[in-house]
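Researcher: Please translate sequence to structure tokens.
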Amino acid sequence: MTTTNDMSRACRAAALYSTGPSAIHPEVLAMHRVVVIAVPPVNTFDLSIPDLIFRGVEIDGRPAYDVRVCTAEPGILPSDGAFDLFVRYGLEAVDEADTVMVTGGAGRDDVPPAVLEALRSAAAAGKRLASICTGAFVLAAAGLLEGRRATTFWVKSEIFRQRYPAVTLEPDVLFVEDGPVITSAGLAAGIDLCLHMVRSDHGAAAANAVARLAVVAPVRPGGQAQFIETPLPAETGVSLAATRAWALQRLDQPLTLVDLARHANHSVRTLTRRFRTETGLSPLQWLLHQRINRARELLESTNLPMDLVAVRSGLGSSDSMRQHLTRRVGLTPTAYRRSFTRLPKHR
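Model: Translation complete:
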């Protein structure tokens, strides 16, 4: 639940922009500006995700992101839901962006030319680009996904393949990062994409903090499967959420499939099948992901020796932790701590 303090922080951040671009408060200059291009018809849930996630991130008590929504023709914007939206900014907002995101379009091929040109200019300027759901069609129409890997809402995947054969479509994942371009699957996968960007910018602790504030699942790996036409097995009267919570409290212990199955009161075979249904991962893959995430949090928020970080996160030894972290994020534990530490720097 959002608290009064949370609301007041959001109001203070919003107040910094209330007088327009010519009077931007000095604090804003250090913020990362995310500009979302809304292409009608928009899905109101998709469009709300960047604001929900990025505005909840604070570093040293100050907002880390400024989020603005723009469109080719400011004003009333049609949606595919029960109500329309009012968008204040035009495409000139893209010029001031650090990250440009695209939502909407519903896979149509009549994207406003001004939107395509704004995206091409953003790419040429080296800005980070991202799309949520069918926003990938807009990036592809601008020619920005050719020769790249990408994903989109699985329902539209066949249409996307036919229209953009030069794009390597991965329809069964949550999001795909290929260089400076990140694309997500439909609806809630946009949350995973935004949390991934927060984690890339500010580390795992910041991403997990905003995930808790938004009451959503912690960061999930992009390669996790979308839940595509996968009916729940008949016996799923009770989910495995309690078993996952139990495991999270024991990541430093040598948990096995048998341990997890015993806690869930299932056979190992049933546990594995239901785990994949609910998370898109096998139990051991899920455990490894959580242990790496725990190691990242400890590296960011403590001065614990590397061996102890490895033990407390369940990765065994510092050598094992180094291998897993380097494979996952491309940094050694020492380099990761140096880049993302949340501890005060001593002079």
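Researcher: Any highlights?
Model: Residues 51 and 67 are 6 Å apart (CA to CA).
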